[in-house]
């Protein structure tokens, strides 16, 4: 199979990485409003925990470029890049992050609990808990005779949860159209992967469940594209699940406010030097698929789109508090 | 003799301001050198302030007040 | 044991430090005590309650775990049964869903199933509570859930003095103890700490008896019963009621299992009125149990129907407008008292 992206796919991946990154840059500064100099999580226009995904954008775009709105994605507590790449309604997503009435859940869920049924996207704040639902959605499609694959994203820490092993086995024994994607950013909060994981690479665990395991090094957009394209094609053809582990990078802390003292000196600077977005931009410029003018246009358009979503969120109202009582049989 | 308790210049990296989240000794109490007297927070990281000398504590910066590196937050009389 | 008075010369601790100090003192005295959990090592716990332990005791006794709660809580049960005294941390109580079998089918039942021949001397410490917009998977209290299931002691301190004494007692206990600490009391400034939780704490080791409530404020018009953060809401409400000329007694439960029904009944027998304040869900929980404990004992002592100020039966919403509206607070307690006096 030829898994070289078309020009259109390349630009789509680049544009969605730029969109996600700019969204998070804006969230980062808005999140800090009301939180300096005293960092109280309850304060500011975006209260609560905030898990940024900057650095991990290649995982999202390299996988989601192969998906249609009908395909299913379950994501993690660090969901923004995947939501952007899956085509989640940006206005409603940002409004949800602000807790507004126009948000995906009217403000009930917040940034760790984004659901957009129109594009079959959901996420959860509990580690490893997206895998079971992905398996089940794939089973549902099989039972209904409907097309579609399910992709479960997770961090490398989730591969040590029971749910990971149970879900992989179930997907394999029933030969379901699922792709399991591990975003290995090397850290589970403060605990390094090598201190928590018995094997250096989680893709090797695929052999325990009789499915292909694929490793993608160096946060490489097009290598992810290729691996994911292969796995998703296999799933669509009824050849069962695949496990992919991607070496990626968390350029920020586990959550905003993280002192990151656990990182070895210089690690973060090194990761920033390898920031995947400037790298991919360079690649596209060198391939003459992009020039400075078209790049500026693309970036400006992405920024304008995000600014519009933020304005939409800021201009929206909160639901009346009593709306908290809806839908749960009080 | 009076000794100032200041926020050490090397307590955290960068020049962000911090906030006193807790005084662990009451105003007017006697403390020994090296006693933990206060906690200062910068974003989510917490840092400890120890008494540089023995003496009776007079608090100058209260809980929830914002402090800079080098700033005097209390004094010790001995 | 009564609370030490606040005064000059008295050292204060946050609950986080009090928990760590109690743990360190027990670890120095008893080589069987060790700590396991996510980020409990060099980081010192996301909520600060293992700070300093890794530096003093090293990686062998202060063990960062993989994100594998079923494995390491199950492992604590096994280690405890084999003569160790593990302290394990479930970072957020909300995460109990991934590992409850180890907790309630093993930790809670193995002593009983062995006819008392197997001991399970372990502490499961876990953070509770919201109020800072962390939404429905990171803000619950679940006091009632744990207290409902037989076989484990459950404690929830409201201040650092109790936290140290209860932690020491929990570690020394031959039974499993669930130690539930509320994030807003922990002394982490980024969680907007309740000042009243940081109180004088003796440096020497001491244990508080698990299963004893305490009257933290005396009064004669109404009994306010709560635990953890709710105690501080009650104390503020009691102050507001005093300004109106009413005298409220505040009972801090400290322990849910065993539950000190005597102290609650004695207080309500004196005041004739009962309001229970609970940040856990309203139905099938702590508040209903407290009221039942009074009413089934003596309904004639009540001058008014008891009331509860509890969390509505909804998943905890993210939006601060909704979450703050749903949380118990002092105003709601005062309102409940006013309603009680009207009816």
Automatic annotation (TrEMBL), chain A:
SUPFAM superfamilies: Thiamin diphosphate-binding fold (THDP-binding)
Keyword Oxidoreductase carried by entry: yes
Keywords in alphabetical order: Oxidoreductase, Thiamine pyrophosphate
Molecular-function GO terms, alphabetical: pyruvate dehydrogenase (acetyl-transferring) activity
Residues in Dehydrogenase E1 component domain copies: 44-321
InterPro entries given in the database record: DH_E1 (IPR001017), PDH_E1_Alpha_Subunit (IPR050642), THDP-binding (IPR029061)
Any one Gene Ontology BP term: pyruvate decarboxylation to acetyl-CoA
Cofactor(s) it depends on: thiamine diphosphate
The UniProt record lists the keyword Cell membrane: no
UniProt-recorded name of the protein: Dehydrogenase E1 component domain-containing protein
UniProtKB/TrEMBL annotation, chain B:
Domain Lipoyl-binding: from-to ranges: 2-77
Alphabetical list of Pfam families matching this protein: Biotin_lipoyl
Cofactor(s) the record lists: (R)-lipoate
SUPFAM superfamilies given in the database record: Single hybrid motif
Keyword Metal-binding: no
CDD domains: lipoyl_domain (cd06849)
Keywords for the protein's UniProt record, in alphabetical order: Lipoyl
Keyword GTP-binding: no
Protein name: Lipoyl-binding domain-containing protein
UniProtKB/TrEMBL annotation, chain C:
Transketolase-like pyrimidine-binding domain: residues covered: 13-188
Family matches, as CDD domains: TPP_PYR_E1-PDHc-beta_like
Cofactor(s) this protein cannot do without: thiamine diphosphate
Coiled-coil spans in chain: none
A Pfam family assignment: Transketolase_C
GO MF, one example: oxidoreductase activity
Domain of life (superkingdom): Bacteria
Swiss-Prot/TrEMBL keywords: Oxidoreductase, Pyruvate, Thiamine pyrophosphate
SMART domains reported in the protein's UniProt record: Transket_pyr
InterPro entries in the record: THDP-binding, Transketo_C/PFOR_II, Transketolase-like_Pyr-bd, Transketolase_C
Entry-linked NCBIfam families: PRK09212.1
Role of this protein: The branched-chain alpha-keto dehydrogenase complex catalyzes the overall conversion of alpha-keto acids to acyl-CoA and CO(2). It contains multiple copies of three enzymatic components: branched-chain alpha-keto acid decarboxylase (E1), lipoamide acyltransferase (E2) and lipoamide dehydrogenase (E3).
Annotated protein name in UniProt: 2-oxoisovalerate dehydrogenase subunit beta
């Amino acid at each position: 199979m030829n898994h070289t992206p078309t020009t259109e796919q390349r630009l789509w991946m680049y544009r969605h990485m730029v969109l996600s990154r700019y969204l998070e840059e804006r969230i980062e500064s808005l999140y800090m409003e009301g939180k300096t100099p005293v960092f109280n999580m309850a304060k500011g226009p975006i209260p609560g925990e905030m898990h940024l995904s900057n650095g991990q954008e290649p995982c999202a775009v390299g996988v989601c470029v192969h998906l249609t709105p009908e395909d299913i994605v379950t994501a993690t507590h660090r969901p923004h890049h995947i939501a952007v790449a899956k085509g989640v309604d940006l206005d409603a997503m940002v409004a949800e992050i602000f807790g507004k009435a126009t948000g995906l859940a009217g403000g009930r869920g917040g940034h760790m609990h984004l659901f957009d049924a129109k594009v079959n996207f959901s996420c959860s704040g509990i580690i490893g808990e997206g895998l079971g639902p992905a398996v089940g959605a794939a089973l549902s499609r099989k039972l209904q005779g409907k097309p579609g694959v399910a992709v479960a994203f997770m961090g490398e820490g989730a591969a040590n949860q029971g749910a990971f092993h149970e879900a992989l086995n179930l997907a394999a024994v029933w030969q379901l159209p699922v792709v399991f994607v591990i975003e290995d950013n090397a850290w589970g909060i403060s605990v390094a992967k090598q201190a928590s994981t018995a094997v250096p690479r989680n893709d090797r665990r695929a052999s325990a469940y009789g499915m292909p395991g694929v490793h993608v090094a160096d946060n490489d957009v097009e290598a992810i594209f290729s691996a994911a394209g292969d796995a998703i094609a296999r799933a669509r053809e009824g050849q069962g699940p695949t496990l992919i582990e991607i070496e990626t990078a968390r350029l920020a802390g586990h959550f905003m406010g993280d002192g990151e003292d656990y990182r070895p000196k210089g690690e973060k600077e090194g990761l920033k030097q390898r920031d995947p977005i400037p790298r991919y931009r360079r690649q596209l410029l060198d391939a003459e698929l992009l020039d400075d003018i078209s790049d500026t246009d693309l970036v400006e358009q992405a920024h304008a789109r995000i600014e519009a979503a933020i304005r939409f969120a800021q201009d929206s109202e909160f639901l009346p508090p009593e709306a908290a009582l809806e839908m749960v049989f009080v | 003799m009076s000794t100032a308790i200041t926020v050490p210049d090397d307590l955290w990296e960068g020049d962000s301001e911090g906030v006193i989240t807790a005084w662990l000794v009451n105003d007017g109490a006697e403390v020994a050198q090296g006693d933990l007297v206060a906690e200062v927070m910068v974003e989510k990281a917490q840092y400890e302030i120890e008494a540089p000398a023995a003496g009776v504590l007079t608090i100058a910066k209260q809980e929830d007040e914002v402090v800079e590196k080098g700033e005097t937050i209390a004094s010790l009389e001995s | 044991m009564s609370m030490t008075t606040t005064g000059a010369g008295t050292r204060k601790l946050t609950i986080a430090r009090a928990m760590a100090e109690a743990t360190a003192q027990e670890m120095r005295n008893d080589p069987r005590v060790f700590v396991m959990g996510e980020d409990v090592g060099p980081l010192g716990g996301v909520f600060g309650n293992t700070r300093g332990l890794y530096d003093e005791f090293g990686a062998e006794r202060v063990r960062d775990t993989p994100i594998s709660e079923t494995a390491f809580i199950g492992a604590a049960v096994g280690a405890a049964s084999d003569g160790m005294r593990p302290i394990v941390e479930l970072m957020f109580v909300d995460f109990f869903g991934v590992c409850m079998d180890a907790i309630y089918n093993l930790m809670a039942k193995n002593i009983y199933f062995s006819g008392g021949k197997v001991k399970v001397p372990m502490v499961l410490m876990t953070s509770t509570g919201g109020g800072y917009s962390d939404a429905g998977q990171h803000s619950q209290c679940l006091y009632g859930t744990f207290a409902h299931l037989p076989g484990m002691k459950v404690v929830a301190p409201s201040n650092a003095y109790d936290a140290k004494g209860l932690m020491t007692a929990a570690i020394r206990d031959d039974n499993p103890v669930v130690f539930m600490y509320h994030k807003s009391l922990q002394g982490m400034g980024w969680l907007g700490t309740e000042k009243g939780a940081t109180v004088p704490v003796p440096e020497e080791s001491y244990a508080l008896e698990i299963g004893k409530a305490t009257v933290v404020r005396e009064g004669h018009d109404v009994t306010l019963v709560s635990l953890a953060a709710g105690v501080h809401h009650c104390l503020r409400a009691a102050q507001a009621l005093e300004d109106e000329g009413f005298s409220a007694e505040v009972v801090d439960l400290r322990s849910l299992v065993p539950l000190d029904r005597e102290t609650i009944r004695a207080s309500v027998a004196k005041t004739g009125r009962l309001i229970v304040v609970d940040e856990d869900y309203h139905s099938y929980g702590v508040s209903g149990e407290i009221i039942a404990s009074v009413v089934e004992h003596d309904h004639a002592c009540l001058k008014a129907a008891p009331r509860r100020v509890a969390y509505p039966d909804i998943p905890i919403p993210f939006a601060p407008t909704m979450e703050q509206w749903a949380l118990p607070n002092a105003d709601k307690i005062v309102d409940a008292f006013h309603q009680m006096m009207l009816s």
